[in-house]
Every structure is written in structure tokens, then in C-alpha cells.
Design brief:
With about 210 residues, the chain is an alpha/beta fold. About 45% of the residues lie in helices and about 10% in strands. It contains six helices and six strands. The chain has helices at about 30-40, 60-90, 110-130, 145-160, 165-175, 185-195; strands at about 5, 20, 45, 95, 135-140, 200-205. The strands form two sheets. The chain has a four-stranded parallel β-sheet with strand order 3-4-5-6, with helices on both faces. A two-stranded parallel sheet has the order 1-2. Strand 3, helix 2 (about 60-90) and strand 4 form a beta-alpha-beta unit. It is globular. It starts with 5 loop residues before the first strand and ends in a 7-residue tail after the last strand.
Length: about 210
């Protein structure tokens, strides 16, 4: 695979990349650069961006909820619309990363859960409305060792009046495989989903057995 990574600004992720896409998804500049890099078509798109959205339900204000929904849900729609024509040229695949929090609600994370439930529902409808030119996959990771997870656990701990270590231990114990997920687990799952040729909508729950449905 030849990868075109994208983010709002450059960082460690882009240092060894020849063709990173920088800027806001769907902006005129971003679309112009995408057309130059991938004008002949795209085989796969993985919507792997997001922010944490923890906080006590009664403590959430409109601005916070709007931010989480925009970044985690609405931007997935923008990414699909921005790449749809290029995906159709190659009969490609669109992988939307939801979360196990988009399958089963979690405490002190109402905004995050809402955004990830939205991604899963959006992927369902994309598949239902498609004419078969693009394959759709939904990836629902469980607790995965990332900076986002650490920040989320800190937010949950604050909302519940606990320590970060308490939340980390609680979640680790709840995972039957005995550990949290790693980014490489999710990357391997995304690659597996992208390479499967079936036209069926696939929903992969990569939770280490924490959720089994």
C-alpha cells in the first residue's frame, strides 16, 4: 500500500512521509492537494481521527458537545464526501472507525458515545444507500493505549471522583485477554477490513472480549 496520511497540522507522524495531506478535511486547499496526489483514484480510506469526549452528563455544555460531535462524527461525513468520487474510480473501501462506545454506552462519556454511535449509524446508512461501487466497513476498537485514551480515563476519573489509576485498573481487569489494545491491533484490523472483497457491510468489534456482540 502507498499511504497518504492526513491531519490538521504536521507533527511526528508526517516526518518520514513524502505526501502528507495537511489542513482541514474538505477545505479547498485540502481537496486541491488530494486531487494532485490521488487524482487517479483511491483504493481505501480509513477515517481514524477523533478527540476524547468525557465528562459528567450534567457538566456538559453545548460548546463541548458540539466540538465532540463535529470532530468525531460530522468530519467522517465530510471525509467520505470529499473522497467518494476517487473511491468510486477504484471501487474502493471506506473504513469508518467508531468505538465499542458506539456499541454500548459507557459512564461519564455521553458526548463521546453519542459521536461514535453516530459514526456506526452513518456507516450503516452509507451501505444501505450505496449502489455497490464502494465497500463499507465499521471498526469498533475497545480501550486502546493512546494519548486519547489516557486523557479520556483522566476525564472519567474526574467525573467519578476517582484516580486515573483506578479507572485504568478497572478497565484492564474487564478485558478478558488481560490487556488493553495497542494501535498496531487496530491498524491490523483496518488493513484486514480494507482487503476483504465482500460487498457486505462488515462491523468489527476489536475489544479483547470486553464486549461480545
Amino acid at each position: 500500500w502507498s499511504i497518504i496520511p492526513s491531519d490538521i497540522k504536521s507533527g511526528n507522524w508526517s516526518e518520514n512521509e513524502d505526501t502528507p495531506l495537511l489542513g482541514m478535511i474538505g477545505s479547498p486547499e485540502w481537496l486541491h492537494d488530494l486531487q494532485i496526489i490521488a487524482g487517479e483514484g483511491i483504493d481505501a480510506v480509513v477515517a481514524a481521527h477523533g478527540i476524547e469526549g468525557t465528562g459528567g452528563l450534567m457538566d456538559l455544555d453545548h460548546e463541548r458537545v458540539s466540538q465532540v460531535m463535529t470532530v468525531n462524527f460530522a468530519s467522517v461525513q465530510v471525509l467520505f464526501q470529499s473522497t467518494q468520487e476517487l473511491l468510486e474510480l477504484k471501487a474502493g473501501v471506506f473504513v469508518g472507525i467508531s468505538s465499542q462506545a458506539g456499541v454500548q454506552g459507557e459512564p461519564a462519556a455521553a458526548a463521546y458515545c453519542a459521536s461514535k454511535f453516530g459514526v456506526k449509524a452513518y456507516m450503516d446508512r452509507l451501505h444501505a444507500n450505496s449502489k455497490g461501487k464502494i465497500r463499507f466497513r465499521t471498526l469498533c476498537p475497545g480501550a486502546t493505549e493512546t494519548p486519547l485514551l489516557k486523557k479520556a480515563f483522566e476525564g472519567i476519573a474526574a467525573a467519578e471522583g476517582l484516580q486515573y489509576a483506578d479507572i485504568l485498573e478497572r478497565r484492564s481487569i474487564a478485558v478478558p485477554v488481560g490487556r488493553l489494545g495497542k494501535p498496531s491491533d487496530i491498524g491490523s484490523a483496518a488493513l484486514w477490513l480494507a482487503e476483504l472483497q465482500t460487498r457486505a457491510l462488515l462491523v468489527a468489534l476489536i475489544s479483547g472480549g470486553e464486549i461480545l456482540r
